[in-house]
UniProtKB/TrEMBL annotation, chain A:
Residues 4-235 form the ABC transporter domain. It comes from Kushneria avicenniae. Gene3D superfamilies: 2.40.50.100, Nucleic acid-binding proteins, P-loop containing nucleotide triphosphate hydrolases. NCBIfam families: PRK11650.1. Keywords: ATP-binding, Cell inner membrane, Cell membrane, Membrane, Nucleotide-binding, Sugar transport, Translocase, Transport. This is Carbohydrate ABC transporter ATP-binding protein, CUT1 family.
UniProtKB/TrEMBL annotation, chain B:
The keyword Nucleotidyltransferase does not apply. Its main location: membrane. It comes from Kushneria avicenniae. The keyword Membrane applies. NCBIfam families: PRK10561.1 (NF007852). The chain crosses the membrane at residues 12-31, 68-94, 106-126, 154-178, 199-225, 264-285. CDD domains: TM_PBP2 (cd06261). Residues 69-281 form the ABC transmembrane type-1 domain. It comes from the Bacteria. Keywords: Cell inner membrane, Cell membrane, Membrane, Transmembrane, Transmembrane helix, Transport. This is sn-glycerol-3-phosphate transport system permease protein UgpA. It is found in: Cell inner membrane; Cell membrane. GO terms for cellular component: plasma membrane.
């Protein structure tokens, strides 16, 4: 039912510091948009501006075609799930859920009907008489969700709702939230710093850095074709490897990447290679040899940190399989691709399609 | 654990300074008062005779004691409620101020640093029937102000002076309490559709209740005992005993009137009363307090 548009949104603090620059974002009805970025990138400020908790320096926030800049949080018909849940500590779970309905003078019997419905939906019906302090972290999270759901708002806002949960519960809750959001079909804006959470939950992902949007797209688009070096490094775990150098002076062992770009390369560039696109091989069998400096076993795979001979930076290799190489060993590296090229501003350089295959053909 | 049990003396030694202070300044005087309340002293303080509960029956039967009791009730209730309500109002406003907030806060805390007697004198000068600045303002409003003649006005004066002083103490606690309420709770409440007024009564006020309860106990004790200096410097219990509270009557009867037995009986009664009041507060008011 609702669309959300952000038009040239800016946030400047009284001291003069500008934390958001010209944010443009269009969210379709029922879409789950995840905003991800490092701490301090402005993502929470953005969310709070949509909620009406922060003033807008310039630009417009439009919900369903109507500019809501001047509206109070309560008038915007949004619901927000806070990082610390912000449950009212002196109220029972029932009263926490009923609070927004009471404020809107909903009849008593309808309040209890809707509270019970919501409690069923979130599996917290047995907890209605408890106070928040008597709940576990996961239960509090559910109550916070319930408080957002009960009003059936136009837009859901999530401010890192899972960051206070332990890892296994987080995986469970992110599936639950995703399922609930799809089922209720409510337009959502979800802020997180956790890229796994972002990848798994988003219809579309917004990567932010230093108050700017770096890229918007589906999780797989961002993974396959990161528009900037920042996105390339932020999305994907373990992070992408980067080799940088002058375009005219690249080490000879690198695959003949530069020739594959659509325009001639000049100046400093970075070449990105994901850890899963490098393979370990016997010495002298790959493009370059190196020393294994560190091995991090993860079970079904290991992360192998290799320093290529005569090179400063280490490369991380994702080595699949339970048998793991020893640190200190010499190894060959087989760089397969795809490769991601970025100019000295960090912008992606256009490359010809299927670049990876041509370089792979060098493999013995 | 065995180490603790072997050193039986050390804990007592460590506690000794505090224990000595409590013994000398609390238990000894309290015991003396209790003993004295059962005796009648002669006029020169040279001898005493055991009187049983005669001091108590005499005090409880006297009209002036009933009046003092009534005055104390009016005075304490007004001071405790007034000082708390005003402090809460100021704390809520100071909590909102962002610029120069510290200056406001410091200024609001100052009155507490003023001695009760000085606070009384300050207000007495401002409201002096002939010299007072505020008296002039009241006169232009058509109010005939003279607290030296009018008992009600005298009561109002001491209540104002006592409130003004205690307010700072309450203010510090309320402000700390307000700043301890997470901003996200009020934000959530705003999103949930509560206006500022409703936000205050449904979120802020309940969350302040532990502090309010503590302050209620402290303010009651303040109004009962610590306002002695304020009353003594301004009205001396007058006119005609209109501002004579229990603690002031106790002083007048004992120190000025030298009825040591009678005033000791009063102090025992006062002790019982405050104890009882605190008990009631804990028993009934504390139930409504939301600890979290």
């Amino acid at each position: 039912m609702a669309t959300l548009e952000l038009r040239r949104l800016r946030k400047r603090y009284a001291g003069g510091a500008e934390v958001l620059h010209d944010i443009e974002l269009n969210i379709d009805h029922g879409e789950m948009i995840v905003v991800v970025g490092p701490s301090g990138c402005g993502k929470s400020t953005l969310l709070r501006m949509v909620a009406g908790l922060e003033t807008i320096s310039s630009g417009e926030i439009v919900i369903n075609g109507e500019c809501v800049n001047a509206q109070e949080p309560a008038e915007r018909d949004i619901a927000m799930v806070f990082q610390n849940y912000a449950l009212y500590p002196h109220m029972s779970v029932f009263d926490n859920l009923a609070y927004s309905l009471k404020n809107r003078r909903t009849p008593k019997d309808e309040i209890s009907r809707r509270v019970n419905e919501t409690a069923q939906l979130l599996d917290i019906a047995a907890l209605l008489d408890r106070k928040p302090r008597q709940l576990s972290g996961g239960q509090r999270q559910r109550v916070a969700m319930g408080r957002a759901v009960i009003r059936q708002p136009q837009v859901f806002l999530f401010d890192e709702p899972l960051s206070n949960l332990d890892a296994s519960l987080r995986v469970q809750m992110r599936q639950d939230i995703r399922a609930l959001q799809k089922r209720l079909d409510i337009t959502s804006l979800y802020v997180t710093h956790d890229q796994t959470e972002a990848m798994t939950m988003a219809d579309r992902l917004v990567v932010m850095n230093a108050g700017r949007i770096e890229q918007i797209g589906t999780p797989m688009t961002l993974f396959r074709k990161p528009a900037t070096r920042f996105v390339a490094g932020f999305i994907g775990s373990p992070a992408m490897n980067f080799l940088s150098g002058n375009a005219g002076d690249l080490p000879g062992w690198l695959p003949r990447v530069p020739e594959e770009t659509t325009e001639p390369l000049t100046g400093d560039i970075s070449i990105g290679i994901r850890p899963e696109h490098i393979a370990l091989t016997t010495p002298n069998a790959g493009q370059i040899d190196g020393h294994i400096e560190l091995v991090e076993p993860l079970g079904s795979e290991s992360l192998v940190h290799v320093r290529p001979t005569g090179h400063e930076s280490r490369l991380v290799v994702r080595h699949v399989g339970t048998e793991q190489p020893d640190a200190g060993q010499r190894t060959g590296l087989n760089l397969q691709g795809p490769f991601h090229l970025f100019d000295h501003h960090g912008q992606r350089l256009a490359t010809r399609p299927r670049l990876a295959d041509t370089t792979c053909s060098m493999e013995p | 654990m065995t180490t603790f049990q072997r050193h039986r003396l050390t804990p007592w030694l460590l506690m000794a300074p505090q224990l000595v202070i409590v013994l000398v300044f609390f238990f000894w005087p309290a015991f003396t008062a209790l003993r004295q309340s059962l005796y009648v002293q002669d006029a020169f303080g040279l001898g005493e005779t055991f009187a049983g509960l005669a001091n108590f029956t005499r005090v409880l039967a006297s009209r002036s004691y009933h009046e003092a009791l009534f005055n104390t009730a009016i005075f304490s209730l007004s001071v405790a409620l007034g000082a708390m309500a005003l402090a809460l109002l100021l704390a809520v406003m100071a909590d909102r101020v962002l610029k120069a907030g510290r200056v406001y806060r410091t200024l609001l805390i100052w009155p507490y640093a003023v001695a009760p007697a000085a606070a009384g004198v300050l207000w007495m000068f401002m409201l002096d029937p002939t010299l007072g600045v505020m008296t002039r303002a009241l006169t232009t409003l058509g109010i005939d102000w003279n607290f030296r003649l009018d008992g009600t006005q005298a009561m109002i004066l001491v209540i104002i002076a006592a409130i003004w002083q205690q307010m700072s103490y309450n203010f510090v606690f309320f402000l700390a309490g307000l700043q301890g309420i997470p901003a996200s709770l009020l934000e959530a409440s705003a999103i949930d559709g509560a206006g500022p007024w409703r936000r205050f009564w449904t979120i802020t006020f309940p969350l302040l209740s532990p502090i309010s309860f503590f302050l209620l106990v402290m303010n009651t004790i303040y109004a009962f005992f610590e306002t002695f200096g304020t009353i003594d410097t301004t009205t001396s219990g007058g006119p005609g005993g209109a501002t004579r509270t229990l603690v002031y009557k106790l002083y007048q009867d004992g120190i000025v009137g030298l009825d040591l037995g009678g005033s000791a009986a009063q102090s025992v009664l006062l002790m019982l009363m405050v104890g009882l009041l605190t008990l009631i507060q804990f028993r009934y008011v504390e139930r409504r307090v939301q600890y979290h």
